[in-house]
Amino acid sequence: MTDAVLWQPQPEALSESSLARFAMAAGFQPEDYVSLHRWSVSDLGAFWGAVWEFTKVIGDKGTIRFAPDDAAWMTGARFFPEARLNLAENLLLRGAPSDIAVCAMDETGTYREYTREDLSVQVARVATGLKECGIGPGDRVAGVQTNGIDALVATLATLSIGAVWTSCSPDFGKSAIIDRIGQVEPKVLFATCRYTYAGKDHDISDRLSDVVASVPSIQTVIVSGNSALDAIDQETFGHGKTLEFEQVAFDHPAYILYTSGTTGVPKAIVHRTGGVLLQHFKEHILHGDVRGGDRVIWYTNTAWMMYHWMISALGTGSAIVLFDGAPILKTDRGLDCSPLWRLAENAGVTHLGISPKYLATLAAETYRPGERQNLSSLRALLVCGAPCLPHQFDWVYSAIKTNMMFASISGGTEILGSFLIGSPTHPVRRGQLTVPALGHAVGVMDERGAPVIGKRGELVCTEPFPSMPLTFWGDKGEQRYRDTYFADRTEIWTHGDVAELTHTGGGYVHGRSDNTLKPGGVRIGISEIYSVCETYPEFSDFLAFGADHAGDEEVVLALKLADGATGSKDTLKRLRADIRMSASPRHVPARIHFVSDVPYTINGKRVEGAARTTVNGGKVKNLGSIANPGCLAEFAALKREDAL
């Protein structure tokens, strides 16, 4: 790894960016981010109050900005306990009625734009329909919908009346949907019965019928498009035309999101209205420099936290860009990598969010977006979901665009935001996440519990912040929440990531703590192994994990061959040598196996833990959280004596 600078912001960023203007308004020099950040985590009321005012939150913040709890410093703290606000109001009432609010495209290229007036009229109508169904503040409303205008309208209508929104993607299996929304007992379900993905048509009407039958709380079903279900069509649901907003308390629930849940039933995480709003406004406006008139997209489904993050960009006065379908399509001529980039060009996207795996596929297909599309509008490329490897930073600036901010960010569903994030006033350094986010007292602690820099340890946060979960839904939810994030360190948030902070002020995230390997009792990460595997076109995917052997743990590497590749002994010898040279001798796999597929969660993340459990003879507790559980049978059959 290196501190090599790949991009420098223009000098005017230190005067014209929102981050710079916020710093000066708070009494800091824009180039002194260290002091600004220290203030943001030491004077919590002043900082978050300044964020409220600078981002022009609609609502009454009250007189108290931060109420500490000396007995429970993190879990007992409260922000803006007297405040009243509405999340949807803050997203919809920005800009002029004729401004574009939404640009929507599907994988066939069908494209449509909606003004803020168009969106508001639809939200008002559906909100009226929900009220007529008896839905009010605190009631849960669920969605199983694609990433199109209908899901957005349903979400905003729910929030506008103070109800609580929760969602799954329509490609989730029946048990995955029931395990999630069934916990929170929604009264209304919005659903997409038919959709197209990767050129294939899918009808999930039977699956939805089973879901409705298994979740008795559902009283009303509202569908998009024709359906055999006993349901109401969303296009005709409701009749009101006037937007009304139910202002609620800062801590009033807004969203319920779910963990991946491969070790048990997914945890239902309850997020506060005010916490979501302030966190997202801070990230979009300050760290992303999103402005009125910008176009913001994150390639996501409606279940992932990045969907909720993206739609909050409406509150900046920008338009959000929705994409419904597969970002890479199979054709007779091979893979078509153009859909997202054609959309970026057509919609004038300024901020684009994707995943490291997507970047790896583009590189493997030698698809260079900057040479194929006009990306003159693009100012920021963002990536999360897994650690972004250093050589991918090089590829981004070579193949996409040289004059843009590239931000690898890391946070999670638990905080609906980022601990480590980008900045419009900082250089981008190869492989590094740029800065700790304002308002987050991020640290890395070693085995002694001491804060360290330049060494790996557990990613922690030592001061409270508004987007901490309100609770986990269900029985003993408060205790389960505390056990998950505060059991290791009393009143210190332990995130579950292995991270490293650098002397330049940035950091690295090396992977999940529970995926850390310990051959010979020495703790090592898997990201270095992946970094080497990424450079081999012979492998289309890979998975590293630990297997029990002779009272120790050995490193296992499963490789999925690319089409037409053979994976010769010479290739594997070279791979092991490269891992030894680039990482360390301890990273060299003791076992290599070829597999036909690699397990992923339904949210698109590799599942090293499921492979480890399976190879070690255990059973994965919740197969419904894995998108391709059938591949685990192959892992169960892997034998040490057959390894390469």
Q: What's the SSE blueprint?
A:
Blueprint: E1 5-7, H1 13-16, H2 18-25, H3 33-42, H4 44-54, E2 59-60, E3 66-67, E4 78-79, E5 84-85, H5 87-92, E6 100-106, E7 111-115, H6 116-132, E8 140-144, H7 149-160, E9 164-168, H8 174-184, E10 188-192, E11 194-197, E12 200-203, H9 205-214, E13 220-224, E14 232-233, E15 248-249, E16 253-258, E17 268-272, H10 273-287, E18 295-298, H11 305-311, E19 319-324, E20 329-331, E21 334-336, H12 339-347, E22 351-354, H13 356-364, H14 369-372, E23 380-383, H15 390-399, E24 405-408, E25 410-412, E26 417-421, E27 428-429, E28 435-436, E29 442-445, E30 457-461, E31 471-472, H16 477-485, E32 493-501, E33 507-512, H17 527-533, E34 539-549, E35 552-561, H18 569-582, E36 591-594, H19 608-615, H20 632-636
Parallel strand pairs: 6-19, 8-9, 8-10, 9-16, 10-13, 13-14, 18-19, 18-22, 22-23, 23-24, 35-36
Antiparallel strand pairs: 1-27, 2-5, 3-4, 5-15, 6-7, 11-12, 16-17, 17-31, 20-21, 25-26, 26-28, 29-30, 30-32, 32-33, 34-35
Helix pairs in contact: 3-4, 6-7, 8-9, 17-18
Mean pLDDT: 94
Distance between the termini: 29 Å
Structural class: alpha/beta
**Low-confidence runs:** none
Give the CATH H-level superfamily of the largest domain: ANL, N-terminal domain
- Any idea how many domains? 2
Q: How many DSSP helices? A: 20
The CATH topology of the largest domain is given as: Rossmann fold
Question: For the record, what CATH class of the largest domain applies?
Answer: Alpha Beta
Question: What would your notes on this structure say?
Answer:
- The chain is of the alpha/beta class.
- The chain has 2 domains: 5-501, ANL, N-terminal domain (Rossmann fold, 3-Layer(aba) Sandwich), CATH 3.40.50; 516-642, 2-Layer Sandwich (GMP Synthetase, Chain A, domain 3), CATH 3.30.300.30.
- Helix 15 links the parallel strand 23 and strand 24 (405-408).
- The mean pLDDT is 94.
